[in-house]
């Protein structure tokens, strides 16, 4: 007989208990009055399980739950799944929930917050959105893991999702699961991303097509960033200074430094200088003659609204965080990064940088409050756990190991997706006053897409007199909604071009 104290535990005794995870979706019925009439639709809100097939030592171990991902899906009732488009939407950060596109532009409800210079007071407003993209496309909003209410399942590490490739793979799997479960493989399919969401969308387009055979009809890239070197102001990053100059000029125009001139005129002058003379000036270094330097200082001061003394002391290089704090320093104000139409009181008259982005200060409260009210009262999701508009420390801990010692670059991935699928169309939306992903930097990335000239007909560009989230400006919201709906119709074969 074996002494019990010497007995080894069985394999079953050493195994951890299996994590039980199930989809948690609340189904509600709604109607929305649109320009095309009454639209009856179904909302499914909550969390779905992100599954992964496990193979260990060449042995299939079944499907294991990895996370519960928050989604909100809207589908038109009684629609033909072979002709009804579906758009998968997400924001960026990385580390942001999809609340911005959801409640600002695409969804059937939208927040009312006012605008620069006329902000609404708390608790803000929530109204129907007749211009919702739902009028022409079903919608699925996705919050990546650690944002919104999306969390890893018990025992899984959150950081395993916090990286370029891991993020793309997890979002792709959520899309695959939804399309399969809902029988939507034959539907026209679109991706809508904003900011880092455009970086994600470019990678997703390639992955979905190459690995899953899920060919897309179009991408809606709002405030795009496809090459991070265009915003790299570190030592030797002279390219970013040129990329930002047209944005600086537009912002100066907005705040009264170009009286008597149109925005388009100012921007075009800045574009031309940034494309030719400015890069040459920066590359000259100490070889730049005194007269050439004086001319450059004068031009940059006139375009940007900054003083010649500041331009000279900055060695002709205007870093964007410093610009936000410097432009209106004499007025005791800083300008917004996400939207430079917004201003806020400077914490210090001598600080090198602004202490906070006044445009983010303006929009965070309305969107956070509106969505959580809407989730509870309209969509019936009663979960009392925390909702993270921005996942805690996600951005700071994000892994770009795939681009070690090089800027993040997805132009090649989008190019490959377009070459693989010649029907893939891309809609680019730009805000004149976007200091996070400036329009001129995005334009440069588009110009470097590695596609045949014939495929450039698949690209379209729209500009709005607003910032990063151009829909907070009401005229821009209405115009952008119409532009996106038109794009989806045309690229789904639902309307003539």
CATH class of the largest domain: Alpha Beta
**Biggest β-sheet, characterized?**
10 strands, mixed
Helix content: 25-40%
Rg over alpha carbons = 25 Å
The CATH superfamily title of the largest domain: Alpha/Beta hydrolase fold, catalytic domain
Proportion of beta-strand residues: 15-25%
- The name of the CATH architecture of the largest domain is 3-Layer(aba) Sandwich
Number of strands: 16
Alpha-beta classification: alpha/beta
CATH topology of the largest domain: Rossmann fold
Summarize the structure.
With 497 residues, the chain is of the alpha/beta class. It has helices spanning 11-14, 99-106, 164-181, 196-212, 238-254, 263-275, 277-284, 290-304, 308-313, 320-326, 358-377, 394-397, 411-420, 439-447, 474-491, and strands spanning 24-34, 37-56, 59-76, 86-90, 109-112, 114-115, 118-119, 125-128, 138-142, 151-152, 189-195, 218-224, 333-335, 343-345, 425-431, 459-464. The protein has two domains: 17-228 and 364-491, Rossmann fold (3-Layer(aba) Sandwich), CATH 3.40.50.1820; 233-359, no CATH class.
